[in-house]
Amino acid sequence: MCEAKLCHNIDVQTVATTLALAEQHHCEQLKDACLGFIVSPGVLPAVMKTDGYKHLVPSCQLVLQEILDKIAAVA
Q1: How far is 24 from 20, CA to CA, in rounded Å?
Q2: Count of CB atoms within 10 A of residue 21's CB?
Q3: What Cα–Cα distance (Å) separates residue 70 from each residue in 38, 57, 64?
Q4: 26 backbone φψ class: left, alpha, beta (φ>0; ψ -120 to 50)
Q5: CA-CA distance, 70 to 75, in Å (whole number)?
Q6: Would you place residue 2 in the very low, low, confident or very high pLDDT band (cuts 50, 70, 90)?
Q7: Whole-angstrom distance, CA of residue 52 vs CA of residue 2
Q8: Could you give all domains of the chain from N- to C-terminal order, each with its CATH number?
Q9: Helix axes 28-38, 15-24, angle to 10 degrees
């Protein structure tokens, strides 16, 4: 129930932190929602400016690869 609620409250400022936590706690639905939000047109540059993203880079390398894979699939 919490995972579903969090999926509806994703925004630029919280998505990277939420994605890291979703990965850490194996919340696939939430992880997919975060990845989908991040790859939406024009969103990634804003996300990359957040502190959450700065934490995501060194701590979740595999998630960064998933972001790139999703962007490549959309393009």
Answers
A1: 6
A2: 16
A3: 9, 17, 10
A4: left
A5: 9
A6: confident
A7: 20
A8: 2-74 (1.25.40.420)
A9: 150
pTM of this prediction exceeds 0.85: yes
The tokens describing 70, both together, are 């999703």
42: alpha, beta or left? (left if phi > 0; alpha if psi -120 to 50): left
**Residue 66: both structure tokens together:** 């998933």
Has residue 75 got a pLDDT over 80? no
Q: Which amino acid is at 16?
A: A
Q: Is residue 70 within 8 Å of residue 35, measured between CB atoms?
A: yes
Look at residue 74 and tell me whether its pLDDT is greater than 90: no
Instruction: Report CA Rg, the chain.
Output: 11
How many CB atoms are located within 10 Å of the residue 33 CB?
22
